[in-house]
């Protein structure tokens, strides 16, 4: 499955790069999404199959630090390609990366798994639940996109898709709780204890805040500081430089201490503080300010990258590790959707409000900024094309709209802190209980040797053994 996911990602990248129409680009992106989602989840599942619970965080810390690095360096690379080459290279760049990664996967990845016919595997996919969920989320995103821009928030064009989407999510949860689906995408038993459900919630909120920061800091740098796309990427480098060591620190700390709650509280607190600090950014903010603010945010984000999955898995039996890890990865990606959609809706709506108040005196510029135009035109090219007296007015609109965006993010940070309170510290298991792991003799190693390397694990083939206790 891991190899197949990489292949899908490469195929989707090739189609997207060569796209000659929007439908072709959408199809390529969809295939990329299937592959990318599979890569993220399968890597984490493999680590869980190889390492006992207590040792997983230190390895996940390395993996998640790379994830954080990619998300923060991506704008730098993408901005450089968009500015100096072609947007197609954003996709073509994935092809050599996929090719290089396939070599060690094919040569060295030797893990146990239960072989089954492709038809039987496809029959177990929750097609109904996945379709319903995708339709519900799409409907809500349409409402968030239209609200305050194309249509008023009180208009039926906004309310109908919003209510249909919410109803669809409710129907999805009901469907997942029934026996109609043999293997539901998101079985509700995973949320039956407060620790796992709280950790899922914290993962969702942390992802919202991470994407919130990653997507909206470049808007500030390009529209307010007049950075080029490449310079904007350089300006956000403090995030990736700080997030990596703090992600590894949290992973190693959870392994050594056997506790995840201290890192969760520290992480969400730092991110909440950072959102408040970002709301102070304006036209005159110095480099020391925006670099320092990013350091605080990145430290919090790095800590949260690796301390939520152990909390999800600790109260659950090892038989649920794969589905719990997949659900955790799904909620992380799902949070990213809202981390982009919610602030975009807030920003566009507030820009319209300020324009209605006459904050910009040039009618042509007002028309260009309305209904999402400010977000689309947030670039140094647009800003520098405006006369100096109007430019100051436009920058003020950007600053005030961004301030509201960051202030709303503070609320999500507080929500994450409250969710963290309900999470209980559960002892991380030191024994590896799985029927999977490395194939005996592969790479001169075995599952027991991998566990022994951690200093405390022993392999037991008891996949159905459950962990008792209240969480």
From TrEMBL:
Pfam families: MFS_1. Residues 441-471 are annotated as: Disordered. Residues 1-391 form the Major facilitator superfamily (MFS) profile domain. It is a multi-pass membrane protein. It is found in: Membrane. It comes from the Eukaryota. The keyword Transport applies. The chain crosses the membrane at residues 26-47, 59-77, 89-109, 130-149, 155-175, 196-217, 237-258, 265-283, 289-309, 321-346, 404-423. PROSITE patterns: MFS. Residues 441-455 have a biased composition (Low complexity). Keywords: Glycoprotein, Membrane, Signal, Transmembrane, Transmembrane helix, Transport. SUPFAM superfamilies: MFS general substrate transporter (SSF103473). GO terms for cellular component: plasma membrane. One of its GO terms (molecular function) is transmembrane transporter activity. This is Efflux pump. It comes from Podospora anserina (strain S / ATCC MYA-4624 / DSM 980 / FGSC 10383) (Pleurage anserina).
């Amino acid at each position: 499955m891991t190899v197949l996911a990489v292949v899908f990602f490469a195929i989707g990248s090739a189609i997207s790069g060569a796209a000659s129409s929007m439908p072709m680009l959408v199809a390529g992106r969809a295939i990329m999404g299937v592959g990318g989602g599979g890569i993220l989840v399968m890597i984490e599942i493999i680590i869980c199959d190889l390492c006992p619970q207590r040792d997983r965080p230190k390895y996940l810390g390395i993996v998640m630090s790379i994830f954080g690095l990619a998300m923060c360096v991506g704008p730098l690379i993408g901005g450089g390609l968009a500015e100096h080459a072609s947007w197609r290279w954003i996709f073509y760049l994935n092809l050599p990366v996929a090719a290089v990664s396939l070599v060690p996967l094919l040569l060295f990845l030797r893990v146990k798994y239960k072989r089954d016919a492709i038809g039987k595997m496809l029959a177990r996919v929750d097609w109904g639940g996945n379709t319903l969920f995708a339709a519900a989320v799409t409907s809500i995103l349409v409402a968030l996109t239209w609200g305050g821009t194309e249509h008023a928030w009180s208009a039926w064009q906004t309310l109908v898709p919003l209510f249909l989407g919410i109803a669809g999510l409710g129907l999805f949860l009901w469907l997942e709780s029934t026996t109609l689906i043999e293997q539901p995408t998101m079985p509700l038993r995973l949320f039956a204890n407060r620790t796992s459900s709280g950790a899922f919630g914290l993962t969702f909120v942390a992802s919202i805040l991470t994407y919130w920061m990653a997507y909206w800091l470049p808007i500030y740098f390009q529209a307010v500081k007049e950075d080029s796309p490449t310079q904007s990427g350089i300006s956000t480098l403090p995030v990736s430089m700080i997030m990596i060591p703090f992600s590894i620190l949290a992973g190693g700390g959870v392994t050594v201490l056997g506790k995840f709650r201290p890192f969760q509280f520290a992480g969400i607190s730092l991110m909440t503080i950072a959102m408040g600090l970002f709301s102070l950014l304006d036209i005159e903010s110095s480099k020391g300010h925006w670099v320092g603010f990013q350091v605080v945010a990145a430290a919090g984000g790095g800590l949260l990258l690796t301390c939520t999955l152990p909390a999800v898995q600790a109260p659950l039996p090892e038989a649920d590790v794969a589905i719990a890890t997949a659900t955790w990865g799904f909620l992380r990606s799902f949070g990213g959707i809202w981390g982009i959609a919610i602030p975009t809706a807030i920003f566009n709506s507030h820009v319209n409000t300020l324009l209605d108040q006459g904050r910009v005196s040039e009618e042509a510029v007002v028309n260009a900024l309305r209904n999402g135009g400010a977000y689309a035109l947030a670039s140094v090219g647009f800003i520098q094309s405006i006369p100096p007296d109007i430019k100051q007015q436009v920058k003020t609109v950007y600053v005030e709209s961004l301030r509201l965006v960051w202030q709303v993010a503070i609320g999500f940070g507080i929500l994450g802190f409250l969710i963290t309170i309900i999470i209980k510290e559960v002892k991380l298991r030191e024994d590896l209980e799985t029927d999977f792991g490395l194939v005996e003799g592969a790479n001169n190693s075995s599952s027991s040797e991998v566990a022994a390397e951690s200093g405390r694990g022993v392999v037991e083939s008891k996949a159905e053994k459950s962990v008792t206790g209240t969480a």
